[in-house]
Structure formats: structure tokens, C-alpha cells
Specification:
Largest sheet of chain A: 4 strands, antiparallel
Number of strands of chain A: 11
Distance between the termini of chain A: 13 Å
CATH architecture of the largest domain in chain A: Sandwich
Largest interface: A-B, 41 and 41 residues
CATH class of the largest domain in chain A: Mainly Beta
Structural class of chain A: alpha+beta
Oligomer: homodimer
Strand content of chain A: 15-25%
Shape of chain A: globular
Helix content of chain A: 25-40%
Radius of gyration of chain A: 18 Å
CATH superfamily of the largest domain in chain A: Jelly Rolls
Amino acid sequence: MSDLASLLSGARQRLVRYKKGQIIFDEGEPSSAVFRVVSGCVRLQINGADGHRQIVGFLFPGDLFGLCVDERTSSAGAIGDVELTRYALDSVLQLSTQSTELTFELIRTINTQFNALAHQVEHVTHLPARERVLWFLSGLADRRSGIGASVPLPMNRRDIGDFLALAPETLSRVIKTLQEQGIVAFRGPRAFTVRIPALKSLPQPFEQRPAAA
Amino acid sequence: MSDLASLLSGARQRLVRYKKGQIIFDEGEPSSAVFRVVSGCVRLQINGADGHRQIVGFLFPGDLFGLCVDERTSSAGAIGDVELTRYALDSVLQLSTQSTELTFELIRTINTQFNALAHQVEHVTHLPARERVLWFLSGLADRRSGIGASVPLPMNRRDIGDFLALAPETLSRVIKTLQEQGIVAFRGPRAFTVRIPALKSLPQPFEQRPAAA
DNA sequence: CGACAGATTGATCCGTCTCAAGCGTGGTGG
DNA sequence: CCACCACGCTTGAGACGGATCAATCTGTCG
């Protein structure tokens, strides 16, 4: 399992920073770079005409995103302050013609994201609110810390709602119920603990990183 | 704009046929081939634990699908009888190390599908039933024939419902209303005409093929 | 000419959204 | 250092869209 970061070390790159709420790129823009999260959290989103927003993915440190051939197919924004490695697109594609490994990893990456999104649709459309939230929280916990530990929640309720297709009010109510039932425990709105491993059978909302950190 | 079919002509391939309802591959299986639709229609789907099903894409002649690195990340099934070109995966990857063009097109293809899925989520989660159906039908019409002409509908109501996250009953009711309003006209359950171009601003539910047939 | 799957229609129920109002907290400026 | 303000989060009451359950209709194929 080769590491994307080292495979990309030969590409033209630089470290970039974005502040909370800043837009990294917008749907429709010409695509000229690929990014990798160094620290912080990024959201991929589709902006509906009516002002509604659908978040199609959260990216965490180590994740690659923004690999589009011509146009950006979604928008990306910083959830909190973030640091990213920005790779010039032509340079990455260039490099991939010389490294089968890289090509392979690139395809794997997009594939993984497609997979995650496909399952997101499945869950968001077929699961009731309570199960959606549980799926999200336990998925986050699995990826970020593990059951039992305190898990940081970088995004706010609206972000979570826009990911799960729930109104913030509904989300809040569901979380309250979940706490009353002792299934999760919140320490403030931005950190929680999953008490009961519960539905381990649920697929994960985030890519299970194969390697690397 | 290079043609995927010709770029793949050097890969190990053969023509395969599936009959109506047959499974082409199942989620979790090892991935050993990529397919291209020759004739008929294929659905990509995620099977939920509770028997629910989410269709994450319909594939039409010319479309490439099933490019997964290790495991199949979704299931694929034949909607009617279909003919596919089956390319051996190792052979395709092998070829892509020699052809930058192919690598490029491969990435573009997955990218396009990710894009389509992302917008599907947006529409299915934020649009009311009526708009969802309209989006689907006019998207199909645009891709398959053009407004005004009679458009074949290869899939049944359940398939459409599972794509739009609507119960077949609701779908049926919406279609009835749309007909009464003179917006669409059905000639039997498997062919329709869009009377009013209506909301052209809606993004398309299917990849707008850049080239090829 | 049956038989069966798919499609339609009807009546009712329930989950979630919406609108509206409180609450808490962190940040800012006096 | 404290008071204020603004934003995010929570809580409540009500409305509504779509799901569900159940029955009937239609076309299609043997």
C-alpha cells in the first residue's frame, strides 16, 4: 500500500491556508489543482438553486480531494482554519504518466470517494433521522478516535444537517433523544462520545483510510 | 476528444450478454473487469440491509462502468436484455500505463460519474416529488432524444422510484398529475414525451456524453 | 384464455419541516 | 473587567408531503 503523499512528492506543490468558512474552489471553475488536507477539515458541497446545500463529503487530514479533469464538479470550503498541500494539476497528471503506482492510487482515491457517496445516498434516503445521525456519529468516531474516546466535531449543526439532509432542528432533537437514551454523550456541541457501539453493521460514512495518516 | 472505445481497443475484451434482471456484479466481489454498454440499459445500485435499494446510476449505450480497483463498490444489474463489452481489468490498467490519453479518459469518466451522483443527491434530497420526476424525465429526454420526441423508458416504476427515492405509488400519482397538466404525455408506461421544456435550468441526471455514441 | 407482474388508485398515518420563540456562549468594545 | 451583542443551538406547536397498506386495473406472456 503505497503512500499518496510520497508518490506526489515529485509534483509541483505548496502549502496553502484557508480560514474558517472560506471557499477553496467553486463548482464550474476551471480545475487547476488537487489538494491534500494537512490539518483541519474541508467540506465538499453542491449548492442548490434555492439556497439549499448538500454536503457530499467531509475531508480530514491525509485525504486527497479536488481531482477533476476540466471543471470543478462541486464546491469545496474550509470548515475551520485549514492547511492544505496544493498540487498543480498538470504536474500531477504529468507525474502519473511516469508512475503506474500513482495512476493506480489516483483511481483508487476517486473510486473510494464514489463509494462513500453512493453509500451516503443510500443511508440518507432510506434511513430515518435517528439512524442517520447514529451512522454519522459512529462513523466519525470509528475514523477519528474509536468508540469510547471523546471525538471532536469540527463542523456545526448546519453542516451535519446538510450532510444528512436533516433540518438543524431535527438534528438537535435527535441528538437530545440519543443522549437521554445514553447512546451518545456530548460534552458541549463540539465533542461527543459514543457509549454503545450499537449498529456495527452500518457501513461507514467516511473512507476508511487504507494506510497513511 | 478521444473515444474511449478506440483507446480501449488494445485491451483484452469480449462481448457478453445478460438477460433482464440478471446481476452483472455484486458489491464486495473482487473487481476483475470494466464494462461498456453496447445495447440495453444497466443500473448501478446499493442494496440496503432492510431490503431497500438505492439506484445510483443508469448506464446507456456508450457508457463505461465498473472501474473499481479492488472490490466492487456497488452492484450492477441488467434492466432489460443487455450487450456489454467486457474488458479485463488488468489489461486496461496495463494499457493505461502506456497511454496518457487513456489514463486521462479513465479519470474523466469516474469524475463525471461522481459529479452525476453528487447532483443526484442534491436533487433527490432537496426537491419535492414533482420536481424530482420532472428532473428525471427531462434529463432522460435530453440525453436520449430531445424535447418533443417520444422517449423510451427502459426501466420500470420501481427502478425509477429507487433512483429518485420515491415510493412507486407516489411516482405514479405524480406522473398522473404531470399528465393532467399537459407537461408530459405517456404512451403506455414505457414511453413518454416532454411537452414543455420547462425548467431547463435543472442540471441533468445523466452524464452528458462529451463525444461518442 | 387465464395468470401474473407491474401499474394505478384510494384512505390513512407518521416523520420531518417550518415557523417562531427562548437560551447559551464566545467575542468585542467600552 | 464587565456588559453587550450576535450567532449557533435548542425547544415548542403546527402543518404537510410522502409512505404505507390495501384493493383494483392493465397489459403481457405463456
